[in-house]
Amino acid sequence: MFILTLLGGCTWIEDYRACSAAREAETTAWTSLGSALDGASVLARRQADASLAAAQAVDLASSVAGTPMVTRAVNRGEMAQDAFTRGSRSHGTDLGLAQAKWTDWSLRTQEQVTATDALIETGRSVVERLSLWARARAESSLVVALASTRYEAAARTGGARLTLTVALVTPPTPAAAPDAVASHQAAAEAAIEAHADRSRGLKEVLTVADKVALEVERAGLSALSTASNYQFLGFPPEAQVAQAAALAAESSAKRAADGGARLRAAVLAARAEETPAPADDVTRALVAAVGLAHADDDACR
Question: How many degrees, rounded to 5, is the angle at CA 130 between CA 137 and CA 133?
């Protein structure tokens, strides 16, 4: 009996030592995970803030560029009348009237080309804004994931630690955070709020992008229709200004088609922007901590 008791005691001591060693290793692993998450969070916040600043800078530049430029007003009626008067003096009323017609058509077509090209340029700016806002939102998602994981790593105990992953938004556990992890909870909530702001910013740009894409496509179709109508207007060969305007409208229509396609593709890419993966050292530290938590659970059960 004494021997059995002694053997049982030795076994208990060995189990106790194994449990203590496993628990110590786990504690060290969670500490290392916390340090890795802290460092990665700082870098992620800096990158997300830089991307947000870039997006806001482009927004500001776009708003300034969108201010109408002061230009000399063009009175098409006066220019057409001048063409009619010049034609009447030199070649007769019929030629003057014809010249007035193709001059007026050419001016209206050139104005259409100018307006279409302006929309295309706006589309290019929106593509850049979409890219920057999508990146800012995706990077803020990583900040949320790291901050949430940092809080969970500090707040969870026991078996709850066995299922910890780097999640985008993890509901706080427990609901009322103890004082020891209150700062981590506050950081997670701040990250979630910042992410919501960036999500709203991206949504606003997506709304603008959809509208501009439709306007560019519509303007391109209108320019193409105008260019196609030229051959049916019966202008004489000497109406070279009208022919040039038709060619310009055709080119503008092609540019609008390309610009509209790029903008639509940018919208799809912005909506599909993925959250960056956490740094390798965070992933390794998390795997190690969860693995040692399992070992602790097995050794101390």
Answer: 25
